[in-house]
Specification:
12-stranded mixed sheet, globular, 11 helices, binds S-adenosylmethionine, alpha/beta, single chain
Length: about 325
């Protein structure tokens, strides 16, 4: 163990952001994320209980983590999520609890989540065309997602970010329409496909580089003006107001500024999404580890966080995205 435990890694990166997958289960089967039959869900006893997540976040906060994002699987399929949000938002040091969701269950939960202290939501939205949306998600209904987005807005979970993964021959011709939503106050982000999970690699040939997406947006809406780098996203202003961001994990990795680590649904600390390195937290938790001991494990993860994942065909596919938490 290091003499001083903190959130600074070997490369001078400060880890302030924890993404927590609260479930490996999902009510969608997105074509690039899961096989049609789904993946075998882990038994409940393997999934972290809410109180275990709270203990991990308390330990992380003691090291300097300030922001928590709940993800999955689909986080809203897990019962009682507002209760978890309330507890996490109350942890000293945690400044912001946010959520990434497919939006399908948001209509019924947005108000309770906002009351519990959720700050904002990111909604994954790969198409604005109902039939295509259904084909991509296999189980999703676009109208449910829009109802969820409206409810999130009404509950004050703003600004709402809309994330789209662009795939060739699937939805590439919608990038202008999706970007145009920025004029309605949404933050639009295009995410490059990444080689992850069991079905992920089948989509390799459909990869569309961020540069190409940006060129398509400019062709449709006019020149973009660089605004800022925001985490992994390069954000640009649109000519008629609003902004759009591009997350280019594959074509231009952003390891140098990476400030995040992940907790998988089954309680492993994963310092880098694209490296198979994991440290188990669940067993220590269940055998009575103290907050200091948990913090020491987290500090070890920070210490071992890799640099330059070099996403390539050789990237190990040890886990589904739904388990790690996208
Ligand atoms: N169910 C929630 C949702 O839909 O946002 C959270 C989990 S989902 C795995 C998180 C994000 O990962 C989604 O925006 C999804 O599009 C993205 N994703 C899944 N597989 C991906 C891949 N191979 N490359 C890039 N993004 C991917």
């Amino acid at each position: 163990m290091r003499w001083e435990m903190d959130n600074l890694d070997r490369f001078g990166r400060r880890i302030t952001y924890l993404r927590v997958s609260v479930t490996d289960r999902c009510n969608f089967r997105c074509i690039y994320c899961m096989p049609p039959q789904g993946v075998p869900w882990r038994p409940h006893r393997e999934i972290l209980r809410y109180e275990e997540i709270v203990r991990i976040v308390e330990a992380a906060a003691s090291l300097g983590v300030r922001k928590v994002r709940l993800t999955g699987g689909e986080p809203l399929v897990r019962k009682g999520l507002p209760g978890l949000v309330r507890e996490l938002a109350g942890i000293p040091g945690i400044e912001e609890v946010v959520l990434t969701t497919n939006g399908s269950l948001l209509a019924e939960q947005a108000a309770a989540l906002a009351r519990a202290g959720l700050a904002r939501v990111n909604v994954s939205l790969d198409s604005l065309r109902p039939e295509r949306f259904h084909r991509i998600t296999r189980l999703g209904r676009l109208e449910d997602v829009w109802a969820g987005i409206r409810a999130a807005r009404a509950a004050g979970l703003v600004p709402i970010r809309l994330n789209a993964v662009v795939l060739r021959g699937v939805n590439e011709n919608e990038v202008v329409d999706i970007t145009a939503l920025a004029r309605q106050g949404f933050q639009v982000r295009f995410i490059e496909w990444m080689p992850l999970g069991s079905v992920g690699m089948e989509f390799r040939e459909r990869f569309v580089p961020g540069e190409e997406i940006r060129a398509r947006v400019e062709e449709g809406l006019g020149p973009l003006t660089p605004l800022r780098e925001e985490g992994p996203a390069r954000v640009y202003a649109l000519p008629d107001g609003g902004e759009v961001g591009f997350i280019t994990a594959f074509s231009a990795p952003f390891c140098a500024t990476c400030n995040r680590m992940r907790i998988t649904a089954d309680g492993k600390l994963r310092p880098c999404l694209l490296s198979p390195l994991e440290l188990d937290l669940r067993e220590p938790l269940r055998s009575g580890a103290t907050r200091e001991e948990l913090a020491a494990l987290l500090a070890q993860g920070i210490e071992r966080k890799p640099f330059a994942h070099g996403v390539a065909a050789e990237t190990p596919h040890d886990r589904e995205m739904s388990e790690i938490g996208g």
